[in-house]
Amino acid sequence: MARDALVLTGPTATGKTELSILVAERLGGEIISMDSRQVYRGMDIGTAKATPAERARVPHHGLDLVDPDERYSAGRFARDARSWIREIRGRGRVPVLVGGTGFFLRALTHPLFREPPLPAEARARLERWMERQSDDVLLHWLEALDPDAAERLRGGGGRQRVMRALEIAILTGRPLGRWHRSAEPEAPPLRPLIFVLTLPRDVLYARINARVHAMVEAGLVDEVAALLERGYGPGDPGMNATGYPEFVAYLRGQSTLEEAIDATQRATRRYARRQLTWFRHQLPEDAVWVDGTRPREELVEEIAGRWKEEGF
Q1: Most CB atoms within 10 A, among 42, 166, 231, 302?
Q2: What does DSSP say about strands 5-9 and 29-33: parallel, antiparallel, or unpaired?
């Protein structure tokens, strides 16, 4: 069965952006960002968003969609991505999904349930209440209303996913897992050809450390300061992206610049480990793991060749 789209994923700092642009140019493709933080406006340097020059080479979708105080769920991404994929294929081009947000990919390969109508006013009030609560308070309520989801998310599922599970449990009276088991999926599953870009751990960590320094040199401190001046803060959905809380602390005099850099490097390394664990356990068996230390030209030819064999 032909594949619907090409996916290039892997841990942060493995070189996915550069490789994806080369692959898209080789195949006549358009890129769909599969990164849960690159959807936020004004968060360019800290999320390693494709530069204007890179975007000029290949059309990009999924960047700069919402402000940092808005939530952007995996379900919304899946709906948007399906629309972009249809449009790209309608132009006779190849959809190339690029990024390391695993639950965005899973929302496409294992479609979410068709969401019941939720009252807009009650949803807005609940969201305002949840935004004011600590992670511990939200998890406490989730344990009472949806113990299965709480157990699954306790190890670091992310604040937005906890809020999403609470929203469903409170506004529908049924836990999230029951909806997943009983409701119809909102769309057919995507059939992607998945490539996972990997690096030896020492190389990956060295790249992560160097990239944080490069982000600071590129103006990350000024970017975070501008977001604070616009009224955004660590409690906003977008602002908990790795690097932003650490540099907010620096700007507020709670740490030195060196401490902020070190904390960001450590947090990014932890995030890369979590990504690798997810990929190993959640990706399908036919995902193709590729060595990111190989010459780019070889990787482009290998990926393009596989796509020509299996793509639409």
Answers
A1: 166
A2: unpaired
Cβ–Cβ under 8 Å, residues 21 and 295:
no
Q: Does the residue 253 lie in any domain?
A: no
Same domain for 291 and 213: yes
Asked if residue 224 is part of any domain, the answer here is no
The string of pLDDT tens digits covering residues 215-242 is 999 999 999 999 999 999 988 999 999 9
Using one digit for the tens of pLDDT, what is the confidence trace for 245-304? Answer: 999 999 999 999 999 999 999 999 999 999 999 999 999 999 999 999 999 999 999 999
Q: Determine, yes or no, domain membership for 250.
A: no
Structure confidence by residue, pLDDT tens digits, 42-81: 999 999 999 999 999 999 999 999 999 998 989 899 999 9
- Would you put residue 16 in left (φ > 0), alpha (ψ -120 to 50) or beta? alpha
Q: Do both 205 and 170 map to the same domain?
A: no
Q: What interhelical angle do 102-109 and 257-282 show, nearest 10?
A: 30
Query: Do 85 and 173 share a structural domain?
Result: no
Distance (Å, rounded) from C-alpha 139 to C-alpha 146?
10
Q: What is the largest CA-CA distance in the chain?
A: 57
Q: Kindly state whether residues 142 and 125 are assigned to the same domain.
A: yes
The domain tally of the chain equals: 2
Answer whether residue 238 is part of any domain.
Answer: no
Q: What's the whole-model pTM score?
A: 0.84
